Please model this.
Amino acid sequence: MTEISIVTPMYNEYETLDLYFERLIPILEGVTPSYEVICVDDGSTDGTIERLKTHHRRNPNIKIISLSRNFGKEAALTSGLDYASGRAVIPVDADLQDPPEILPQMIEKWREGAQVVLARRGDRSEDTAMKRFSAHWFYRLFARIAETTIPENVGDFRLLDRTVVNALGQLPERSRFMKGLFAWVGFRTVEVEYAREARAAGQTKFNYWKLWNFALDGLLSFSTLPLKIWSYFGFALSAFAAIYLIYLLVKTAVYGVDVPGYASIMSVVLFFNGIILVGMGVLGEYVARLFIEVKRRPLYLVNEVTGFPTSDIEPLRPSRLDSFDSNKIA
Ligand code: UDP
Ligand code: MG
Model:
């Protein structure tokens, strides 16, 4: 039985790979003889997979899941969690922004009885001002409207006990906003703090458009408020319109018909059409997400695995089951 599983999604991380293992492996070996590092190659095109295989030949504790294309970090992470066999599992980014040096501390807390150990970014000065600003507002908005509370400045870097990983495996949804799901499952949680470093090499895989969509996904999968708010808005507007109608009727009865009013009519028509379109757009966002859920496509497809015993490829958990049952895909 493996004690610690590290799960690392990798998308074109050829440049950081060597640095990553160089720093990670000695630290892990200092903590436990029984570990595995599961690297999920998320459709890389820069030779990441070949380089990973070289590392696997040198150290069989480094295992590889190669996805059939780029599925995104959330799906890559999910596949790694599905395959991890450790009694504790820790997602770690490949770019060394999650410093391996604090792993011993996290593992210590777990051995003392914690089921989740959050790594909080105490110092984010290495992140750009724009990223810190948008992250801050995202967390504030999320706290306001979502039913689940996610801790600010905590990423996917956290230790998860086997119980927690199994719980996550039970969640059937396709839309995997991992930070939200991690928080949703709960369990006994403690924290450690660290300073966020700069990316060791290579480039960030998230541009602002991707981040925006990621944030939208997070908000819409954990809150129905954007959907429900429109009925209140509509109600308030109808009430106002009713009063205005009475006023107009009375005015017409007293002063007669008043023809001019093109500008006011146009502005009202344009304004309310805009509002209606926004409401429909929000509705569309939810319907699109429903559509994705209903199709029940697998979260990811595995092309090949390296370093896992063949029995490990048997379907175990729902998310993994879907990925392997060809009847479901057909
Ligand atoms: N990643 C991935 N698939 C993607 C995008 C990113 O597996 O489609 C991985 C990436 O290789 C890295 C981690 O997710 O290990 C975090 O990505 P990155 O460092 O680019 O994000 P940032 O830290 O800038 O938010
Ligand atoms: Mg990074």
Observations:
- Residues 134 and 212 are 9 Å apart (CA to CA).
- The mean pLDDT is 86.
- Residues 9-11, 13, 42, 70, 72-73, 76, 93-95, 97, 199, 204-206 surround uridine-5'-diphosphate (ligand 1) (CB under 6 Å).
- The chain has two domains: 4-210+297-328, 225-295.
